[in-house]
Write a structure and sequence with these properties.
The complex is a heterodimer of chains A (229) and B (109). With 229 residues, chain A is α/β, with parallel strands linked by helices. Chain A has 8 helices and 10 strands. The mean pLDDT of chain A is 92. Classes of the chains: A alpha/beta (229), B alpha+beta (109).
């Protein structure tokens, strides 16, 4: 591979937009591909197949060819509502697992920088936060504040935008009450059932890192299901 | 989970080259069965056999390193290597998990 291509890949990575690296395994040539960019003679014969793999965000050798496509897809964004103790452990796991993480909490005293280093902390109410960002099904929401006036606007937004994972901390009783309120607001049973509540898989632990682990295990499992759809 | 946007192996490759090392890049391009690493997993290797990153759970790294050092020494530009449990060298370089994989190695220049 030419060093120029390598440098171009690194540059493209800073934009967070999908692109692909194509390699012709029969002659070793590589180039960067984005939808709409013309292909060189090494790849032009496989235009349709390349487009197809690109749209499916699939990486690998294209069937019956010697063309390798490696798709660079924007990382999944995890939005955590509530800069609580559990969030600190959650962030550690999420970083190692290559998620992008943003923590939102309107309570400034919860979000001092010492507790959350190298992480996007937003001191805003969720309604205000979501107004200014683009979110879609490629986003996950974890609400941890278990204060309805902080968590619920975020949950409503995530339901409307069909986030692939929505989880809400709180006991079964808290969650039942939450569901009742969402129903009164006009959300249907299917939407409400899509919320993982109480959040996490059953590990039986009660400490903050154990709860974080149970949440992250559920999130990874749901992410893998979502990515293989 | 592999996330190419977050992987910094290519950045490392550049810094190795800038410090006058010769570098080969190994990439997992195909897997079958229970091979543990995903397509796109990468490793870089220099002319001395120093390496960074990985392409398997340690099963085929030694062979990949040897092949890359050879590639650099012979000034070849690329090679495709298939690893199968049925290879005659299975004991040395087969995947104990019973999977199969293809690794593409190429010199960066």
């Amino acid at each position: 591979m030419k060093i120029e291509i390598l440098k171009e890949i690194i540059k493209k990575k800073s934009s967070d937009e999908q692109f692909a690296v194509l390699t012709n395994l029969s002659n070793g040539s590589s180039e960067i591909y984005k939808l709409g960019i013309p292909l060189s003679k090494n790849f032009i014969n496989y235009k349709n197949e390349i487009e197809n793999y690109y749209n499916l965000k699939k990486s690998g050798i294209i069937n019956n060819t010697e063309i390798l496509i490696q798709n660079y897809i924007k990382p999944i964004e995890v939005i955590i509502i509530g800069a609580v103790h559990i969030a600190q452990y959650l962030i550690k796991f999420l970083k190692d697992l290559n998620f992008d993480v943003t923590v939102v909490d309107p309570r400034e005293y919860f979000t001092t920088k010492q507790k959350f280093q190298n992480i996007k902390i937003i001191n805003k109410w969720p309604e205000e936060f979501f107004k200014n960002i683009q979110s879609n099904s490629n986003t996950a929401l974890i609400t941890l504040s278990h204060d309805p006036k902080i968590d619920e606007p975020a949950l409503k937004h995530a339901l409307k935008k069909k986030f692939f994972y929505i989880g809400a901390l709180g006991s079964k009783k808290t969650h039942d009450n939450r569901c009742k309120r969402l129903k009164d607001e006009g959300f249907n049973d299917k939407e409400i059932d899509s919320i993982h509540g109480p959040i996490g898989i059953r590990l039986g632990g009660k400490s903050a890192p154990e709860i974080a682990l149970s949440i992250v295990a559920q999130l990874v499992s749901e992410t893998n299901k979502y990515k293989n759809l | 989970m592999t996330q190419p946007f977050k992987d910094t192996i290519l950045e490392e490759a550049i810094s190795w080259i800038e410090s006058d090392q010769q570098v080969a890049l190994a990439t997992v391009v195909q897997t079958w069965g229970s091979s543990p690493f995903q397509i796109g997993s990468k490793m870089i290797i220099n002319e001395k056999g120093n390496f960074l990153g990985s392409v398997s759970g340690g099963c085929v790294e030694t062979s990949v390193i040897t092949e890359c050092v050879e590639l650099i020494k012979n000034k070849n530009s690329f090679k495709k290597i298939d690893f199968k449990i049925s290879d005659e060298n299975a004991w040395n370089e087969g995947l104990a998990c019973g999977g199969e994989m293809t690794v593409f190695i190429e010199q960066i220049n």
